[in-house]
Amino acid sequence: MKISKAVLFACSLLAINVTAVEARDLTVVSWGGNYQDAQRKIYFEPFAKESGKPLLDESWDGGYGVLQAKVKAGVPNWDAVQVEAEELALGCADGIYEKIDWNKLGGKDKFLPDAVGDCGVGAIVWSTGISYDGDKLKQAPASWADFWDTEKFPGKRGLRKGAKYALEFALMADGVAPKEVYTVLATPEGVDRAFKKLDALKPNIVWWEAGAQPLQLLSSGEVVMTTAYNGRISGLNRTEGKHFGFVFPGSIYAIDSWVILKDSPNKDAAMDFIAFTSKPDNQAKLPEFIAYGLPNIEAGKLVPEKFQAELPTAPDNLKGAISLDIDFWTDNSEALTQRFNAWLAQ
Amino acid sequence: MSVLFRKQMVSLALVAPLLLFLIVFFAFPLFTMMKSAVSDPVATQALPASTNALSDWDRSSSPTSEMSAAFVEDLRQINDDQLFGDLVRRLNSAKAGFRTLITKTRTAVKATAGPIDLTAVDKRWADNSYWQVIAIATSSTITDRNLLAAVDLERNSSGAIDTIPAGASANRTILIRTFTMALAVTAACILIGFPFAMIAASVEGWRRQLLLGAVLLPLWTSLLVRTAAWFILLQDTGLINSTLMFLGLTTEPVSLIFNRVGVVIAMTHVLLPFMVLPIFSVLVGIPKTLMPAAASLGAHPVRAFLAVLLPLALRGVISGSLLVFMSALGYYITPALIGGAKDQMISSVIAYYATGAANWGMAGALGLVLLVATLLLYVVYLRLSAERELKP
């Protein structure tokens, strides 16, 4: 009987260990790569110093299921997370985020209208578009038609793996005007048309998933041009002296937001952190490292002249660019992704 | 209390940690996964009145006013946002467009207290196909939808099983590819691992330590690091291609990355230790006098190998093959980084449904199909090895 008592004792010890709630440091999650390096420098480290408490940062590659699973598991191990617009819309409807305290942020009218939500605060305005190595290409590509033209520009192309963006770009390459893209894509014929256009380029496509990958593909010469996030391109040009170009006409811009996961034990600290990153003078430091547009209107004005021209929010860059249609993608993401995966596997 | 009973209790207590571990970390998750693949309670839970109202609808006549009244009532009653989110996801997964439709309708319903004309809120409510999806979703709390979809089948409007139109889904292709790739990697591991294990078993002292170290050292390195290293080696401007071009063997880089060749190379390297170690452990137990004995009886080395060494070492080869094959089936990182679009294995599809679409039913169903297919192969293996042992 002694042995079973010992086992019982060991089991109860184990149980105590599991249930004991550990005080966890504030954990902030963002997109990694040179973007997160910049955030660490201007947000994470100064905030840790100001609050006097350590701040952990992790990176992720997106995926709504990841956040949903964390919240449904009970107490999430992440607090503040930077999400794409689609994840913001889905999660806010499902109630997996805490509501934002706009008083701490100085009021909704201090931000771009699209950056204000019940569950999220805009963090950056970013663009996806064609990027190329200016040192290797004598003539720069100017449009999606050029991206598809393998005779004029021989070599492989990088595209983000997924239906989102690839279908829009294919339609623009097929001659659809940027403003008409989502109207065409909403019809079954439009979807067929996009896939048919992708067929033509398929043998020349290298698919990437994480935002740091296209930079690597472009640097190594594995691809001659690729879709990429505009901020990372200008960031790399500045830190490594590259001459990568980014084509704004035909690019698609969207807003990424900070959210706080439901029932986070560091809810208040996370809110303070988001408020810290949204202060005009803190946010205005970002474009020096990475060329993303700023949702805080005051911060946008504080950005030095020389960095203004590279931002997706600059008036010249907005010409011919379109905004990502969140409603279209929350409705059609699953069906189109399934079809896209089937198309990839053929 | 008899002595026997006490003894039994003591032995039970001794294995209790193992049993608990198996139940908590193996049986329970497996059961949950299987359950999520077939259970479909969301719509019935969230729409109780509609469940009743839709149960005797023939699914072809136009929707009745009772149906829409019941549906409006249900929408008004849902206060749990997470339940509502699950409902939306369930319906939108069956028919794209439901997400905006239901969210819009819910807002309109909550704004008024009385009855409401759904077709005035959105004209899609006049479309039968949306009501059919709700009727199917509320008809039962268990479903074979996910399991069928996992092997590219679906139920058509009359309820018969039908194949999903070509181009809409590729689960079957990817499942077959997963098994072919795992087989190719296993074959490559045998071809490289067997001679390697033979050499390692035939030498002694520091040479053996060196050879075994060469196998074990990579095993202690992270899988991600090894895959990333292969990425650097295999790329067009990588070490392998620049050496080939320097030696003048090729003028253009051989394409080794983003295709099947690269994935098989990298996976073979990663899984090689699991083949070498079992074969080695069997080979060191075989008396070294056997091969010279065969030679003294006049056998050619090849014949001696085939008739003496190979049958004795086969046990190691088979357990090594099983280890490699089973691990290769679940590979995710290596095909994702080294492979092209046509080299993705089933785990990447499972990962999409779990982490991307939050569709746990589909993720569970695909996992279940993979598990059943693997078990079937294992049974075949058991039958084959049993037959072999019966032979004298």
UniProtKB/TrEMBL annotation, chain A:
The record's section on Pfam families has: SBP_bac_8
InterPro entries from the UniProt entry: SBP (IPR006059)
The UniProt keyword set, sorted, is: Periplasm, Signal
Q: Which residues form the signal peptide?
A: 1-20
Q: Which SUPFAM superfamilies match?
A: Periplasmic binding protein-like II
Gene3D superfamilies of this UniProt entry? Answer: Periplasmic binding protein-like II
In terms of domain of life, where is this protein from?
Bacteria
Give the protein name, as stated in the record.
Answer: Putative spermidine/putrescine transport system substrate-binding protein
From which source organism is this entry? Answer: Phyllobacterium myrsinacearum
From TrEMBL, chain B:
PROSITE patterns per the UniProt record, alphabetical: ABC_TM1
Q: What is its membrane topology?
A: Multi-pass membrane protein
CC terms in the record's Gene Ontology section: plasma membrane
An example Gene Ontology biological process: transmembrane transport
Q: Enumerate the Gene3D superfamilies for this protein.
A: MetI-like
Mind telling me which Pfam families this protein's record contains?
BPD_transp_1
Q: Which residues cross the membrane?
A: 179-203, 210-233, 270-287, 360-381
Broad class of where this protein is predominantly found? membrane
Q: Where is the ABC transmembrane type-1 domain?
A: 175-381
Note the superkingdom of the native organism.
Bacteria
| Cross-referenced SUPFAM superfamilies | MetI-like
Q: Which residues form the signal peptide?
A: none
- Enumerate the subcellular locations listed in this protein's record, separating them with semicolons: Cell membrane
Keyword list, A-Z: Cell membrane, Membrane, Transmembrane, Transmembrane helix, Transport
Q: Which PANTHER family match?
A: ABC TRANSPORTER PERMEASE PROTEIN, INNER MEMBRANE ABC TRANSPORTER PERMEASE PROTEIN YDCU-RELATED-RELATED
Regarding protein family, the annotation reads:
Belongs to the binding-protein-dependent transport system permease family. CysTW subfamily.
For this entry, the protein name equals Putative spermidine/putrescine transport system permease protein
